[in-house]
């Protein structure tokens, strides 16, 4: 039975690497945010934009992963809190309210969340909300400063939020592997990979 469990664990970890490593290879450490060619459009531009910033992708997946790892009610509260606080940060960005080290904060979100997952650290729900919320402000502020240049800010925002939600769902779905043999190691391995990806962005920012 132990041999079988180890085999399942190995296959699951391999799947994890196959999913996460392409994100690390395709990311561009020298620039935390890149702009897609159709940025000034509406819904489709907003929907596609998160996928052009791999720092955002890693952080969104990490929020879902950590929520799944912490279990209920965090599994659904964290993916709700993040977009709400991100919207607040977006308002600050649109209003031109300065926020220091925005890109570094975005990159750090992947590092911190990835480490929390990799080390299997559990925290009270209120602390998890604060951690996720703080990083949400940075993500929202960065995109809020870009939002006014869109032709249709409302449809752009809808597309952006929808894409963010899908990334959260992907993280949650992967995090649910924790309930199968070898799944816990797979989730922690994914966290480590996210942390490494975030670190590469952080070094590029600095």
Automatic annotation (TrEMBL):
Determine the domain of life of the protein's source. Answer: Bacteria
Q: Which residues cross the membrane?
A: 50-69, 76-95, 101-120, 125-142, 154-178, 185-205
The UniProt keywords, alphabetically, are: Membrane, Signal, Transmembrane, Transmembrane helix
Q: Does the keyword Transmembrane apply?
A: yes
Matching entries from InterPro entries are given as: HupE_UreJ
Which positions carry the signal peptide feature in this UniProt record? 1-32
Q: What is this protein called?
A: HupE/UreJ family protein
